[in-house]
């Protein structure tokens, strides 16, 4: 058994080109799902599994992320004055959720490079990497399952999901063998392969539990696809010295960097809300008409 993982890294320095023009001046991590920015769901997910220290890798134009997790004394003053106590408590809770730190990536040289920027902060302990594009449903238990697998194996654990064969080229893709309950041993990993070159249909989703060995591995990783330093390629290097596992899951992930999935998440999350769900359900029924 290894010690519980306490630190998470959220790389948020990418350009968000799939969501232009919304992301021209607004970080994609700040796009709201109903009334909460995407990155808040990710921070809440981290906190829910016992993470207490979060490092956000930020970049140009990402200041609003820092503002979001900071106290806003002016807003709090007016909420207090207006007797809006519930909203006031909510605003304070956001700033108190976890210890959140920031470091800048400088240039978006790839996800692997973004993770390398966390080295000094993370030090020599296993840690979690969480991508803000991937929102996991709060009831999915994916990260908790990955951390339990990490505690059992002491190894890095990647989130894996089966995808349509035609879509493997959107993901890091793994060759694997079974290793018990939802767990596979990763035998090979390839960044965004052509479907005919994919070793399986299991794609890597945006959650990783990584051992600190990944930092040396990233240093040894040359720029790959798109001229970027790919985390996938660094994981392959890591596999030269350490076992890497995958935790495979089926439900509960939304790729909110993709417009259709973003809409699906927005509707599903709103339907689950007590204050919005019933009225939205009536609207959707009306809008879509009889079957
Ligand atoms: P993506 O390549 O999906 O993100 O990287 P992107 O560049 O922001 O988005 P698109 O594809 O152009 O729409 C996955 C994650 O890694 C972060 C991104 O912010 C995203 O959360 N990332 C990527 C960095 O932090 N730095 C980088 O250099 C690249």
Describe this entry's structure for a reader.
With 291 residues, the protein is of the alpha/beta class. It has one domain (7-257): Spore Coat Polysaccharide Biosynthesis Protein SpsA, Chain A, CATH 3.90.550.10. It has a five-stranded mixed barrel with strand order 8-11-9-10-12. A two-stranded antiparallel sheet has the order 2-3. Helix 3 packs antiparallel against helix 4 (85-96), helix 8 (213-219) crosses helix 9 and helix 10 packs across helix 11. It has eleven helices and 13 strands. The radius of gyration is 20 Å and the shape is globular. It binds uridine 5'-triphosphate.
- Estimate the helix proportion, in percent: 25-40%
Query: How large is the share of residues in beta strands?
Result: 15-25%
User: Got a strand count?
Assistant: 13
Q: Report the C-alpha radius of gyration, rounded.
A: 20 Å
Would you tell me the structural class of the helices and strands?
alpha/beta
Distinct bound molecules: uridine 5'-triphosphate
Strand order of the largest sheet: 8-11-9-10-12
Q: Which descriptor suits the 3D outline?
A: globular
Order of helices and strands: EEEHEHHHEHHEEHEEEEHHEEHH
- How many alpha or pi helices? 11
Number of domains: 1
Q: Which second-level CATH architecture applies?
A: Alpha-Beta Complex
The CATH class:
Alpha Beta
CATH topology name, in short, is Spore Coat Polysaccharide Biosynthesis Protein SpsA, Chain A
CATH superfamily grouping: Spore Coat Polysaccharide Biosynthesis Protein SpsA, Chain A
Mind describing the biggest β-sheet? 5 strands, mixed, barrel
The whole-number mean of residue pLDDT values reads 94
Are there runs of 5+ residues with pLDDT below 50, and where? none
């Amino acid at each position: 058994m290894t010690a519980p993982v306490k630190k998470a890294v959220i790389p948020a320095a990418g350009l968000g080109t799939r969501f232009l023009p919304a992301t021209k001046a607004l970080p994609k991590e700040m796009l709201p799902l109903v009334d909460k920015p995407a990155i808040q769901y990710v921070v809440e997910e981290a906190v829910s599994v016992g993470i207490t220290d979060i490092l956000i890798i930020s970049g140009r134009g990402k200041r609003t992320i820092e503002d979001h997790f900071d106290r806003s004394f002016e807003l709090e003053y007016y909420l207090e004055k207006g007797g809006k106590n519930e909203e006031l408590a909510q605003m304070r809770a956001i700033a108190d959720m976890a210890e959140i730190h920031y470091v800048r990536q400088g240039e978006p040289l790839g996800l692997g490079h973004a993770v390398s920027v966390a080295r000094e902060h993370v030090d020599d302990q296993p840690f979690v990497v969480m991508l803000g594009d991937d929102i996991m449903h709060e009831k999915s238990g994916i990260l908790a399952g990955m951390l339990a697998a990490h505690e059992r194996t002491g190894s890095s654990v990647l989130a894996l999901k089966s995808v349509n064969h035609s879509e493997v080229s959107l993901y890091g893709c793994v060759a694997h063998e079974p290793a018990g309950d939802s767990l596979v041993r990763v035998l090979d990993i390839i960044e965004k392969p052509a479907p005919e070159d994919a070793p399986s249909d299991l794609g890597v989703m945006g959650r990783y539990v990584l051992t600190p060995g990944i930092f040396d591995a990233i240093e040894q990783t040359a720029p790959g696809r798109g001229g970027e330093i790919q985390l996938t390629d660094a994981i392959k290097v890591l596999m030269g010295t350490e076992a890497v596992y995958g935790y495979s899951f089926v439900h509960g992930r939304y790729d909110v960097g993709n417009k259709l999935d973003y809409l699906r998440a927005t509707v599903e999350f709103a339907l689950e809300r007590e204050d919005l769900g019933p009225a939205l359900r009536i609207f959707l029924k009306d809008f879509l008409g009889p079957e």
